[in-house]
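Hey, resending since the last one bounced:
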Amino acid sequence: MPELEWGRVIGAAVVLVVMLGVGLGLRLVLRRLIQRAEGNHWVWDDLVLRLLYDLAVVLSAAGGAWIGVLVLRFQPSVRTVIGQILVALVIFVVSLAAARLAGGIVSSIAMARSGISQSVTIFANITRTVVLVVGTLVLLQSLGVSITPLLTALGVGGLAVALALQDTLANLFAGVHILASKTVVPGDFIRLSTGQEGHVVDINWRKTTIRTMSDNLVIVPNAKFADAILTNYHQPEQDMGLLLQAKVGYDSDLEHVEKVVIEVGKEVMTEVEGGVPDYDPLVRFHTFGESSIDFTVILRTRDFTDQFVVKHEFVKRLHTRFRAEGIGIPLPTRQLIFPDTPALVPGPR
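The structure tokens again:
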């Protein structure tokens, strides 16, 4: 009998070691497959392989341990306890791996839509939290703990917490709404109705961070940011039109003026960094002013911040070209006409 029992112990140990070896072998194979999968643009195979990589050793070890328990022929009560422990361990590990998989899926979907990695953080974190909560409830249920009272307590406690954290929850849901609607994503240049403007650096669960052109950070709570009236200079396209006002004298040849301005505009679009080379500038005369004919020049820049150097170069070159072509930019003038007045008669001294 003792020899038989020792034989069962040795057999159980051999089974456990073999299953561990199988798990480690699968892990090595999966690691190589993951390295190969990272080279392609399809992310789903990478996510599935990482899930199997996380579960390989634990599932193999749990399977080997259960086979060893059956080989050793424990008492039913002991076997039940060991089985519950193994099931709880498997549920715990599967929950962690599933949370990682779900977060990766949400991140890949959000990245495919927005293309900005910062904008997926909030969605991935919420997804991981939900999966972990569900896994915890399943784990407690598997251990014989009734989750119905727990859910009731969580519901009442959740209501109290929601009332206490109204502002925080408002910012959280506002951040989710901002990212889901895709009206603003990190990297966009925006201007708020309150006057703040700059590039959106990050949108997290509580606040939106804007970097101004003076390289300062403006922190806006998501609830206020979602309600703000703003202009997004990167939507629907990142390049934007640039309108400049100018004027020439009434004695100028407008056809010649238009030709010169377009030539200077094309030169700036082609040579100045930030211009759109394939864009054809436009000139539109619109007003007979008091001392000039006013017109608008329409250029185009690749980004909002490029407008300053483009405008700078255009004004310099247009001024130089106007002087070379003899085109005058008139100053405002006034002609004062006085009616005839009677001569002033000196009064007595």
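The chain has a mean pLDDT of 78.

Sorry for the duplicate.
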